[in-house]
Amino acid sequence: MSNSKVFTARPTFVGIGVQKCATSWLHEVLSAHDDVFTSDPKEIDFFSAFYDRGYEWYENHFAPGHDVAVRGETSPSYFYHPAAPTRMKTYNPDLKIIVIFRDPVERAFSNHLHELRKWHFTSSEYFEDGLRNNPCYLEQSRYAKHLATWYAAFPRSQILPLVLEEIVLDSEAAIRQVYEFLGVNLEGKIDLTRTRSNESVAFRNDRLQLTLQKGGKMLRRAGFGAGLEAVKGFGPIRGLMNLNKRDLRIEAPPLSDETRTRLSHELAQEMRDLAGMLGREHLPWKSFPAD
User: Fold this and answer.
1) pLDDT in the model for residue 66
2) Residues with Cβ within 8 Å of residue 57, at least 6 apart in sequence
3) How far apart are the C-alpha atoms of 106 and 180, rounded to whole Å?
4) From CA 80, how far away is CA 146, in angstroms rounded?
5) CB atoms within 10 A of CB 230
6) For residues 259 and 105, what is the distance between their CA atoms, to the nearest angstrom?
7) What distance in Å separates the CA atoms of residue 223 and residue 98, rounded to the nearest whole number?
8) What is the three-class DSSP state of 191?
9) CA torsion sign, 290 to 131 to 21 to 252?
10) Would you state the pLDDT for residue 291?
11) CA nearest to 237, candidates 252, 219, 221, 249
């Protein structure tokens, strides 16, 4: 007689990225909704890095939310991983998918700051050196190329594309759009105190910052987002946080006009193709081709 386990805590949605395009914002605002369960950690990377661990390992991340109708995770590594769309469709062809785009040149530069922050690239602070060192800076910004693989695997009705610059202009409207897409109560909790993280900030002591972040997440999930902001503004706490910060926009030279122009030209067709795939004539990006 079989003793096979029936898994009931399967995710219903997945955020697939793109990296440095407000995926942490997405995770946090969904975590604030009472009818949504989000994984901890945010990034499970199952369909990219840990597929060999199997479905049970993956679904165990959602077991604490088995009594919630909407469950999910956000792993930016999925967007450009060549096998992720097929793996995800094989696992559950009914999954709802959320993807966020931003100006691809700005995204690439933010990718560079991320690598500096994580100490993955230490031989130079210059963006141009980072481009030569890491092909993923540009590969992850080739949006149309990779979105095409997701559109080939899933119906477009199951994929919600968002644009970071539009989220910044009206975050409440973007949150409601996500709620409607996922089928949860539109009047659910909207925590507008959670803003996009400051991507130019790194930390001298990562362990201290991790402790502070975990405490902050607990308070937000308990509904004390506004109170948390007040605590962060308290003199000694604010001083401790500031002492632990490194400003990467001071340490790393800014994106030069020459490099921006070159990358905008290189990614111009990708941007045009993406606009067409999204049914738009233009995207609100400084790098979007004018012609």
Assistant:
1) 92
2) 46, 50
3) 29
4) 6
5) 11
6) 9
7) 24
8) coil
9) negative
10) 74
11) 219
What is the mean pLDDT of each successive set of 10 residues along the chain, which is 291 residues long?
A: 59 97 93 93 97 97 94 98 98 98 97 89 93 97 98 98 96 94 84 56 55 62 63 62 58 91 98 98 96 74
pLDDT value, residue 141: 98
* 221's tokens: 């999930």
CA distance 247 to 125: 12
E runs forming strands in the chain: 13-17, 36-38, 70-74, 96-101, 159-163, 201-203, 245-247
Type of residue found at 173: A
**Residue type at position 243:** L
Give the span between the Cα atoms of 33 and 72, in whole angstroms.
12
- What's the confidence (pLDDT) of residue 1? 45
**Residues contacting 163, CB < 8 A, separation 6+:** 100, 101, 102, 283, 284
**Tokens of residue 235, six digits:** 């003199």
CA distance 197 to 227: 18
Residue 102 is predicted with a pLDDT of: 98
Alpha carbon 202 to its chain's center: 18
- How are beta strands 159-163 and 201-203 bridged, if at all? unpaired
- Give the per-residue pLDDT at 129: 97
Taking the CA atoms of residue 162, residue 167, residue 168 and residue 169 in that order, the dihedral angle to the nearest 10 degrees is: 120
Please give the single-letter amino acid code of residue 163.
V
Check residue 201 and give left, alpha or beta (phi > 0: left; psi -120 to 50: alpha). beta
Please count the residues of the chain: 291
Nearest Cα residue to 183 out of 158, 163, 151, 153: 158
Residue 281's CB is within 10 A of a number of other CB atoms, namely: 8
Cis peptide before 18 (omega within 30 of 0): yes
The answer to whether 82 touches 23, Cβ cutoff 8 Å, is no
Distance CA 219, CA 232 (A): 12
